Amino acid sequence: MADYDRAKELKAFDDTKAGVKGLVDAGIVHIPEIFVTPAITENEFSAQNLECSDIVNVQIPVIDLEGINEDDFRHRKIVEEVGEACETWGFFQVVNHGVPQHVMDEMISGIKSFHEQPNDIKMRFYSMEPMKKVMFNSNFDLYQSKSANWRDTLACLMAPNPPTNDELPEACREELLQYSEHVRKLGHIIFELLAEALGLKPNHLLDMECARGHFIISHYYPPCPEPNKTLGITKHTDPDFFTILLQDQIGGLQIYHKKQWIDIHPVTGALVINLGDLLQLLSNDKFKSAEHRVLAKQIGPRISIACFFTTQLQPFERLYGPIKELLSDENPPLYKETTVRDYVYYYNSKGLGARPSLLHLRI
Hints:
single chain; about 375 residues; four-stranded antiparallel β-sheet; about 30% helix; metal-binding; DIOX_N; vitamin c; L-ascorbic acid binding
């Protein structure tokens, strides 16, 4: 469109502070041009629907953590399953993980309540300032990315320097605090399993302060009138150590595996674990940070809650690079060292869907 002024349209959307839900509430039938993703074509979606059955039926591993500390044989089997999933997929789901079902259900309900409350209450939290501990927005990379994504987000820094309780939104305050504590404990278990799967002592990654911080990012994907023209989230990897993802039953999450997009079907009671760039760096490419995306859908809203294990933009100067115990003459370091903050700044500056940020550190 000759008269299309993208910068003007982006600012107009940002200024509403109403997010994508505001567009849906206004009754739009065609998505604004800023959301149209050129790479998403009818052909790609048709190809997805025609994938051969062996691809369609492929599923990421589901690992049962039941009895993890009761039996040495069972523990070793779980470590082995985690290692294989990390090397092959970069993604797996866990069941019997210790987070009660009612806590997960209440968290999803609380996030839905936040996003569906009157806009004059919700917009008090609206911000594009990355250093804020609690912020609501639509597309953190709105001005950097090539296309906006069909989602709104509430982001809350929960550790190591959390907001005071009364700074958290009332609509989901108790749910956030409860879920954060449960997921923190699970995160420590996952760090121990990852360390053992790398052949290290269980506390190795914890001693490196990898679990020092976590950041909960809760997405709300309203129904989209033209889901074949946009995405819920553009393909990307996560700029953290790993992510614990809670999703509802609607689906839409996909992982790029062996040159195919594969659906990650929701499993009742399960949490999705996906490795981030920083763990790929620490493992010197033994473990993979896999590209993933979320499709836009005509049904909804879809709710997902991602807990990023990272100190995000906190001013910590600890350097992270390939773990020395894993290196040898045959396995030299592949990456330069970085602080978490520097890596996240670089990642955020480019917007989702850009060239993989880890390449920036490649030796």
